[in-house]
Amino acid sequence: MSKVTFRERARYWFDNTMSKGTASLIGWLAVVSLTLIVIVAALTLWLAPDEPDGVAGPGHVLWIALMHALTPSKVASDKGSTAYMAVMFAGSLGGLFIVSMLVGLLSNGLKQKVDRLRRGRSRIVESGHTVILGWSDQVFTIVAELVKAHASEKGSVIAVLAERDKLAMEEDIREAVGDLGRTRLVCRTGRPTEPRDLALMNLASARSVVVLSPERKDPDAHVIKILLALAKRDGMHPPVVAGLTSSRNIAAARLAGGQDVHLVDSDDTASRLIVQSSRQSGMSVVCMDLLNFDGGEIYLRTPKKLVGVTYGEALHAYQTASVIGLRRPAGVVLNPPTDTVINADDQVIVIAHDDSHIRLAAGKPSLDEAAIVEAAAPPTEPERTLLLNWNGRAEQIVRYLDGYVAPGSVLEVAADHPKAGTGLAGLRNLTVNVKDCDTTDRYALESLGVGLFQHVIVLSDDRFDPHHSDTRTLMTLLQLRDMQSALGEHYSIVSEMHDENNRALAEVTEADDIVISDTVIGLLLAQLAENRHLADVFGYLFDSRGSEIYPRPAGSYVTTGTRVTFSTVVEAARRRGETAIGYRSAHARNVPPHYGIVLNPDKSEPIVLHQRDSVIVLAER
């Protein structure tokens, strides 16, 4: 190998200094400027020693050379000999290049600084703030719900860290959410997997952290890497809630984040909700009402006056709140047996519109004994369900459905998806048939004999992007709606969609339930970010074991067409071993935003329930 020459060493040193940034470039420019000034001054003293008129020595000549270098236009006013004018012209010409380069360097340096400030690279100094790591459409739902939750708080802050432009994030959120009220939004551009970028969020002083599953290939791997970065950082560790798309990655995420991280299985939650909604019309709306911060919210209370009281007696304990279960040291139980005694270490789970409304009622409830109906629960019979389309969570949906239906039930899968009907071995109650079908084609749907089924589930086809998939789902719903009208058929329809904005369009189809999976997961993440102790409550609600939410005929509880108080409805449900939490009006079932559902009404409020209305209860199957 040849020896490194002095020229190569000098070139290498010069390249290294040039790569140090704007300051280094300006330093070299200053050296060049000084060299030019000294050369011009020396040539002036040599070629024109007595010029210009009134010169007072070498220092004065240096000053004149400096002014010509910094102000090239000054040469226009010079007078003197040819030698003097030539030297000054050369100095001014060199100064022109130097000044141009200086302006360019300063402009580029300032632009880089402004871009850095624009990306938001300063460390957050807030405390008690909620941090959102990552970006997906769920961020809009989460921010909107946190704004509602903090509406009465002054100085609340939501901080978002994602690999997007800071201003673009702020603009998108404000456009989607609207007025943020008293809540301040702070966005930072960075990678949530990098410890240096995480340090910008002041996590040690944060109230909670929400990790979003990004809209990219293999999103769970990205979430797990963020959990690893959070676990490895020093200092205080705030509560973390993370969303995963696949149940198969729960164990790895738990290992990465530790036992203190609460994981939300998006596919599992959405699958359970779709199945429950297919069997209980309005289930998704009830869950969304419980999950958002607009209406009824779930609270945990430890009232000393209820210690020693049975659960059945506690159902009438609050005037403007509904008791739904107990949080015991052994775990959460919703709608326990009515003779369950409330202990001192139990917490009562209630639904209320605000925590200020959770006050014990004065006196006994007003009951209309004559209006209470005693009706036996209908027997379970085999059912026929039609599943249109197929996606990654369809297998999970079928298996959950198998746990609900009676033996001998039939599931017909109609889809042109290459994986339709695969992976369904080991079903106990369902017999599955698979047919190739374009679910947007009217004639193909008519050939299925849809009127023979009690329930129809329309899934989102994952072969298409979310927006196009929603469009195809809308086409299918419109076809089904027209077939119902033309043929006089009756069957429940539940559909899955991605975009909440498409719900308004889907209302034209009058589907019984529309499950917006991304919105539901966003609402759940927002709830757990505010109170992670509710995780067990929502986990119980979405589980097929134990009590679940059921909208049941009002005529099974009270005499329809009669004015009664909601306390009477609660008592009628209590005698059946159930917990009434609201009702659904049939004439408003297609009226947004609650679609006829009223949760946690005042127990003294008189209501009239009609034959097609429903009472919403927590009950065993």
Automatic annotation (TrEMBL):
It comes from the Bacteria. It is a multi-pass membrane protein. The chain crosses the membrane at residues 21-48, 83-106. Gene3D superfamilies: NAD(P)-binding Rossmann-like Domain, Regulator of K+ conductance, C-terminal domain. Keywords: Ion channel, Ion transport, Membrane, Transmembrane, Transmembrane helix, Transport. InterPro entries: CASTOR/POLLUX/SYM8-like, CASTOR/POLLUX/SYM8_dom, NAD(P)-bd_dom_sf, RCK_C, RCK_C_sf. Its main location: membrane. Pfam families: Castor_Poll_mid. Residues 283-366 form the RCK C-terminal domain. It is found in: Endomembrane system. This is TrkA C-terminal domain-containing protein.
